[in-house]
Design goal:
By secondary structure, the protein is an alpha+beta fold. The protein has four helices and four strands, in the order H-H-E-E-H-E-E-H. The chain has a four-stranded antiparallel sheet with strand order 1-2-4-3, with helices on one face. A hairpin with a 2-residue loop joins strand 3 and strand 4. The C terminus is likely disordered.
Length: 124
């Protein structure tokens, strides 16, 4: 995963080939094993689970910041205690390096969560 963390997303307006199933499977080995590759090897998805709503929303906002910084935006759905993140490169109708770069960076955000008990909160 560390190689992906060092990379930056590149603009993609189409005109490049999407990754083959073989290449996607190879790159999946660089991610947390909780990521899933769909049957057509065109999308990756991971469900992140949390103890409560404020932790979920903190993650959603942190993941959105990663997406903004990389200019590569996932589909995210969330509820009280989970967020599901899916990546694919719309311009090519499949997976590119950008999807795996962002997935790795979002894994890092999840892995470095600060316990809520250690953060001051003005709401009692």
């Amino acid at each position: 995963m560390t190689d992906l963390l060092k990379k930056r997303c590149q603009p993609c307006e189409g005109g490049v080939e999407k990754h083959s199933a073989e290449k996607a499977l190879m790159l999946m080995g660089s991610l947390n094993p909780n990521w899933r590759l769909n049957e057509s090897a065109t999308q990756i998805t991971r469900r992140f689970e949390f103890a409560d709503y404020h932790r979920t929303m903190a993650f959603v906002n942190a993941a959105a910041w990663v997406a903004h910084c990389e200019d590569h935006h996932p589909m995210m759905t969330h509820n009280y205690n989970y967020c599901e993140v899916s990546f694919w490169t719309h311009a090519i109708g499949g997976l590119s390096d950008n999807d795996f770069i962002c997935a790795a960076k979002i894994d890092q955000v999840f892995d470095q969560q600060i316990p809520a008990e250690g953060v001051a909160c003005a709401v009692a």
